[in-house]
Every structure is written in C-alpha cells, then in structure tokens.
Design goal:
With 125 residues, the protein is mainly alpha-helical. The protein contains six helices and two strands. Strands 1-2 form a two-stranded antiparallel sheet. Helix 1 packs across helix 6, helix 2 packs across helix 5 and helix 5 packs across helix 6.
C-alpha cells in the first residue's frame, strides 16, 4: 500500500511539473489546495488508465514497437495522457491537454520527472 501511495504522489508531482512547463497542459483552480487535490485525482486516473488500457494498446501496436525500435512508446504515452485529459473533463476535474503535441511533450516530461523521482526515492517493491 505504501508503494502505491508513493507512486501516486510521484505521478502527481510529475503531472504538476508537466502542467507548469508545457503550455498546452492546463491545471486550473482557485488556490494551491484545490490544484493539489486535482493533480492527485488526475494522478490516480492516470494510473488507472495506464493499468487498464495501456497494455491492450501496446499489445495491438506491437508491430509498430518493433518497427520503430520502441520509439512508438512515446506516442502511446501521449495517447494515455490525452485519454486521461478526456476522462478528467468527464469527471469535471480542472485538468486539460489541448492537443497531441502537448500530450507528447507532457508525457515525455512526466516520464523524465517520474523516472528521476523513482531513482531518488528508491523502489521498495
């Protein structure tokens, strides 16, 4: 359970950094507490999307992974972030990704920040 909470908080921090850096990703709210709760909810939603949908997409796009030597992973990550944005809109969360390019750059930043934080904090699992 502790690992789940840490990973969710790491994803939340990575999403917050992506929203801060990428102009096409918006995280709105009145104050920082509302933004913090929103980003944690989005991180939970992002985790569910990555857990449920990403393996299916990776399975069906396996030839593209092989053809591009794994670079198609960036596209899949961007699509998962874009899907998270769509689901956030449906759940009335104040998180939005404008277009595919914003999702691509945001997914890259989220991957880098979460990798760095996982490296710094260690993995107990």
């Amino acid at each position: 359970m502790k690992g789940f909470v840490i990973k969710t908080l790491i994803n939340a921090a990575a999403i917050w950094v992506a929203a801060w850096i990428v102009t096409g990703i918006t995280l709105t709210g009145d104050d920082w507490q509302h933004k913090a709760l929103t980003v944690v909810a989005v991180a939970l939603l992002f985790g569910v999307v990555n857990w449920l949908i990403k393996p299916v997409v990776k399975l069906f796009s396996l030839p593209l992974f092989i053809l591009t030597l794994g670079l198609f992973t960036f596209v899949v990550n961007a699509l998962m972030l874009w899907l998270t944005s769509w689901a956030s809109d449906k759940l009335n969360l104040d998180f939005h990704v404008d277009d595919f390019w914003a999702a691509l750059f945001g997914a890259l930043i989220i991957s880098l920040v979460s990798w760095g934080l996982n490296l710094a904090l260690g993995d107990d699992d």
